[in-house]
Amino acid sequence: MSKVCTICKKKPGYGNKVSHANNRTRRRWMPNLQSVRANMGGTVKRVVICTRCLRSNKILKAA
Predict the structure, then answer these.
(1) What is the three-state SS of 11-61?
(2) Rounded distance between C-alpha atoms, residue 10 and residue 24, angstroms
(3) What CATH number is given to the structural domain containing 18?
(4) Contacts with 62 (C-beta within 8 Å, 6 or more apart), sequence order
(5) Confidence class for position 51, pLDDT limits 50, 70, 90
(6) Model-level pTM?
(7) What's the domain range around 12?
(8) Beta-carbon neighbour count of residue 58 at 10 Å?
(9) Number of domains the chain contains
(10) What percent of the chain clears pLDDT 90, i.e. is strictly above it?
(11) Rounded to an integer, what distance in angstroms lies between the CA atom of residue 16 and that of residue 51?
């Protein structure tokens, strides 16, 4: 599954995990993506969208 939202193009953020001893290792913050059936352009498609787009009704979920 792709780690990118279909609607808003949100993708993983990158940075460092910093320990108490100030050791730094690379890490990723993943977006909360859900696979839903959506009504897009009159057809029902399975899309991967983030929960913020789902909550703000940026798509119409298929029944």
Answers:
(1) CCEEEEEECCCCCEEEEEECCCEEEEEEEECCEEEEEEEEHHHHHCCCCCE
(2) 25
(3) 2.30.170.40
(4) 37, 38, 39, 44
(5) very high
(6) 0.82
(7) 1-63
(8) 15
(9) 1
(10) 90
(11) 25
